[in-house]
Amino acid sequence: MNLTIIPAGMLGTNCYLLRSESGNAALIDPGGQPEKIADILERAGGKLKYILLTHGHYDHTGGVKYLIEKYPEAECFIGKGDKELLVDREKAAFMLRGLDWDTYHLPQTKELSEGDEITLDEITIKVIETPGHSVGGVCYITGDLIFSGDTLFLETVGRCDLYGGDFDVLRSSLARLSALEGDFTVYPGHGEPTTLSHERQHNPYMNGR
């Protein structure tokens, strides 16, 4: 698997480009600057098959509309609890802050649930539900990599004061991640990568602390 990190959008959201050996590709959280993302994808020789969203906040979804129009064969997925943020303007309005709703209205996005798997040639991407930052937040796991969205950052966690956020629920999600066997490299929605072993030891929010 080939992995490229593409910081994009107003808040520097980490978009992740995953490519199989044959060049099929998935994008995780293309939050903005979709022309930049498409250019990197095409220069890498990737064929976009999937867009995977960790949650429905605008800084993770802002590039989707452009990309699915440019690559109509690509499928977009989100955790089932956050689909409402892509189809219900009133529920999304708290985050949009005057941004154009049409850019963030994504009714064609399909829902994912705990245990679902996305297959990209030799790459299997597993879904684990990790609500707390939002109602339907998910992490994507492939091999020894976790794409954690805004659930888990380097030595901290995502905020819980937005619509659908719940700190107690987030702590339960973090405990689930902490309980995974072995170590993983964690690629968060913002900031630098970390490892699960580092977070188990140094993140004050893990394990209910």
Describe what you observe in this structure.
The termini are far apart. This protein has helices at residues 34-43, 58-61, 64-70, 84-87, 89-96, 101-104, 167-178, 196-202; strands at 2-8, 13-19, 24-28, 47-53, 75-79, 110-112, 117-120, 123-129, 138-142, 145-149, 152-153, 156-157, 185-188, 194-195. The chain is of the alpha/beta class and 209 residues long. The strands form three sheets. Strands 1-2-3-4-5-6 form a six-stranded mixed beta sheet. Strands 7-8-9-10-13-14 form a six-stranded mixed beta sheet. 44% of the residues are buried. 27% of the residues lie in helices and 31% in strands.
SSE inventory with pairings:
Layout: E1 2-8, E2 13-19, E3 24-28, H1 34-43, E4 47-53, H2 58-61, H3 64-70, E5 75-79, H4 84-87, H5 89-96, H6 101-104, E6 110-112, E7 117-120, E8 123-129, E9 138-142, E10 145-149, E11 152-153, E12 156-157, H7 167-178, E13 185-188, E14 194-195, H8 196-202
Parallel strand pairs: 3-4, 4-5, 5-6, 10-13
Antiparallel strand pairs: 1-2, 2-3, 7-8, 8-9, 9-10, 11-12, 13-14
Summary, kept brief:
By secondary structure, the chain is an alpha/beta fold.
Brief descriptors of the model:
single chain, 8 helices, 31% strand, six-stranded mixed beta sheet, 14 strands
